[in-house]
Design goal:
This is N-acylglucosamine-6-phosphate 2-epimerase. The protein is α/β, with parallel strands linked by helices.
Length: about 220
């Protein structure tokens, strides 16, 4: 299913950010209730330290995941190093239907393709940026605004107020990533406030396949219709 269709179909979504680009993790995520999965290229993950390789190295894996699982799949196309315009243009042929990219690393050409466009704000964002995301062509926003030095800490009321501010200003489907250690109960209450979904990553899932599967399953309980 295409990510746009998924956003129209369900009130709450669970996106799982895979610790590595593999069929094993993708299968574990989908079989335990993820609505969509997210691959990574051209980045070093801040939490796991995993270095994710280029699109050339990953595209056959993406194709295999899609043909095997027939799942909704997106990608982080890079940071300081970014997938090329040509690479982004061919990703839908390999089963991808959305990308998720920090606005401060995104060249203008990332908006010139048929993928659904999730734009991410980081901890240096300004309120005015949130207001203009829709005008710039965003289909959704990832509210990834926690300072890296605070990763893994408990979520605070201040964090929640900032999330709500961006939700209101952007007028876009808004996704909360687990940069802080959000519990299932907290996530349930946050989604009740109007956020479209969660992006669950290694801070809460870990990287061991058994615990990864169990935690995805727990979070999926609050996104089932």
């Amino acid at each position: 299913m295409h990510f746009r269709e998924l956003m129209d179909l369900k009130d709450r979504l669970l996106i799982v950010s895979l610790p590595e680009n593999s069929l094993e993790y993708a299968r574990a995520a989908i079989e335990n209730g993820a609505d969509a999965i997210k691959l990574h290229i051209n980045v070093k993950h801040r939490v796991t330290g995993k270095v994710h390789v280029t699109w050339t190295d990953v595209r056959e894996t993406a194709k295999n995941i899609h043909s095997t699982l027939d799942c909704c799949m997106g990608i982080v196309p890079g940071a300081e190093t970014m997938a090329s315009e040509e690479e982004l243009g061919e990703m839908d042929k390999f089963g991808l239907s959305f990308f998720d990219v920090y606005v401060d690393f995104a060249p203008l050409y990332v908006m010139k393709n048929d993928l659904c466009k999730m734009l991410a704000l980081n901890h240096t964002y300004s309120k005015s940026m949130a207001s203009y995301l829709k005008t710039a062509g965003a289909d959704a926003v990832e509210i990834s605004i926690i300072d890296p030095k605070d990763y893994g800490k408990n979520l605070s009321l201040e964090d929640l107020l900032k999330y709500l501010e961006i939700l209101e200003l952007s007028e876009l489907p808004s996704f909360i990533p687990t940069q802080k250690r959000i519990t299932v109960d907290e996530a349930d209450r946050i989604l009740d406030l109007g956020f479209k979904g969660l992006i669950v990553g290694p801070i809460v899932t870990g990287t061991e396949i058994g615990s990864f599967s169990r935690i995805v399953r727990e979070f999926s309980k609050i996104t089932r219709d």
